[in-house]
Each structure stands twice: as structure tokens, then as C-alpha cells.
Amino acid sequence: MGDTGSIVLGFLLSSLAILFINSAYSGMETPLSLSAPIAFVTALLIIPIYDTLRVFLMRLFSGKSPFVPDKKHIHHILLKQGFNHQEATLILVGFTLFMIAITFVFQSFGETLLLAIQLILSFSGGLILDLRLKNHLKYHLRKETQERFSISKSA
Questions:
Q1: Domain containing 16: what range?
Q2: How far apart are CA 55 and CA 69, in angstroms?
Q3: What is the CB neighbour count within 10 angstroms for residue 40?
């Protein structure tokens, strides 16, 4: 897709999100009545919002420019854990659908509480992914080290 394609796609998604929120608050009759349109849009875009914030903050805290590319995005973490592209995509889509369902079911809680729930769930999910990756890498490093020493001892 490239940089230009992703910028255009981001612009379209954000424009559609703003139009959706404005139409929900304008009182237009729609087949699906939502009492928390901002939380619903956030649920739809939770992966890109969370991933952008996470990587941006990680780069800042490590003293790097937030605009330098790296392989610390969520999909890279899933690929490093051994998932293929299709499985990683299904995990991310599944989490997004889970967030949409939570938002739809609990929309009567109000915008603020739903946004807080989304924030807690997304950061908890991200923390679990990061810890799983750390354990996965430790396991493989330990396994490689044991294999090296067992080969060198027998030789």
C-alpha cells in the first residue's frame, strides 16, 4: 500500500468516523439507534488507535524519534509469536469484533464509562501480548543456548 495509500485510508476512515458521529448527534433517524456513537467509532478503530499510541510512546520512552519505523507493531508481535498473517489478522479482527460487541451491549453505560472500559481492555490485551512475546523469545533463546552447548559438548 505504501505511505500515500495508508495516509489516504487514514483520512477516509477518520472522515467517515466524524460523519458518523455528527449524524448520530444530529437526530437523524437511522435503523440502528446508538446512544454512544463516539465509543462505537472508537471500538471500530481500537486496533489502529491503540497500536499508534503504543508504538509512539515506546519510541519516545526509549529516546528514539516517534517517526522512525520499527517492528514493534501489534501484527509484528503476533508474527514473532509464530502466528501466520491470516491468524494474526483473525486475532486482530476478533478483538475488534469483541470490542464492538461490548460497546453495543453496554451502550447504556454512557460514553465516558465505555471509553474507559475500551482503554482498560485494549491496554490489558496489549500487555498480555507483550508478556507472551517476552516469554516466547526467552524460551527460544534458552532452547538455542541449550542446543549450542549440547552440540559443543558432544563434539
A1: 1-33
A2: 10
A3: 23
Structural contact between residues 55 and 70, judged by C-beta atoms closer than 8 angstroms: yes
132 shares its domain with 63: yes
- 103 contacts: CB under 8 Å, gap ≥ 6: 36, 39, 40, 42, 43, 114, 118
Q: pLDDT tens digits for 48-75? A: 888 988 899 999 999 999 888 888 888 8
Pair (143, 75) in one structural domain = yes
Q: Which residues contact 34 (CB under 8 A, 6 or more apart)?
A: 24, 40, 104, 107
**pTM: predicted TM-score of the whole model, two decimal places:** 0.77
- 45-72 as b/e, with b when 16 or more CB fall inside 10 Å? bbbbbbbeebbeeebeeeeeeeeeeeeb
Residue among 89, 94, 77, 84 at smallest CA distance from 134: 77
Tally of structural domains, the chain: 2
